[in-house]
Amino acid sequence: MTRQAALIVLLINALVTSALIAAHARWIAPAHTPRMAVLDVAELYRLKEHELTSALMKPEAKEAERADALKRAHAFGTDVSTLIAQLPTECDCMIVARGAVVGSPNHLPDLTPLVRQRLGL
User: Fold this and answer.
1) Count of domains in the chain?
2) Which range marks the domain in which residue 64 is found?
3) Are 80 and 119 in contact (CB under 8 A)?
4) Do the Cβ atoms of 120 and 75 come closer than 8 Å?
5) Least buried of 16, 24, 31, 48, by fewest C-beta within 10 Å?
6) Is 80 exceeded by the pLDDT of residue 1?
7) Are 86 and 61 in contact (CB under 8 A)?
8) Looking at residue 12, what is its pLDDT?
9) How far apart are CA 79 and CA 85, in angstroms?
10) What is the pLDDT of the chain when averaged over all its residues?
11) 8 Å CB contact between 80 and 41
């Protein structure tokens, strides 16, 4: 094989390889890297605990109001679990507990205010 033929084969090989890599990146590989967001679950429970303590410790609170506060507190765990299960599909992201993030999570979106609002905290 002559030098010219070898260069032509090498060039064709490089073009075909580049085209295959570009096609793979365009149609086969995932469109984007997985997005992540943080959620401070401990803060949610602290807020609910404060709300429950305030409701139970009010001197003018009636027994029915205290019982209602206890019912809401009992249902809170289920509500939080249901909401956390829905979040990944809503935001198209992976949810990470804020306490599990090593370093500063400032570059990650924080879903805690949204969840606090939905839970009425």
Assistant:
1) 2
2) 32-119
3) yes
4) no
5) 31
6) no
7) no
8) 94
9) 10
10) 86
11) yes
Residue 82 in tokens: 């249901």
Do residues 35 and 94 touch, judged by C-beta distance below 8 A? yes
The rounded distance, in Å, linking the Cα atoms of 55 and 114 is: 23
Mean pLDDT of 48-71: 83
- Which CATH number characterizes residue 71's domain? 3.30.910
Closest CA to 84 of 107, 115, 56, 60: 115
Separation of alpha carbons 74 and 76, rounded Å: 6
Report the pLDDT value the prediction gives residue 13, as an integer from 0 to 100. Answer: 95
Among 108, 114, 111, 120, smallest CA distance to 47 is for 120
User: How far lies 17's CA from each of 8, 23, 27, 93, in Å?
Assistant: 14, 10, 15, 33
59 & 114 share domain? yes
β-bridge pairing 94-97 and 36-39 = parallel
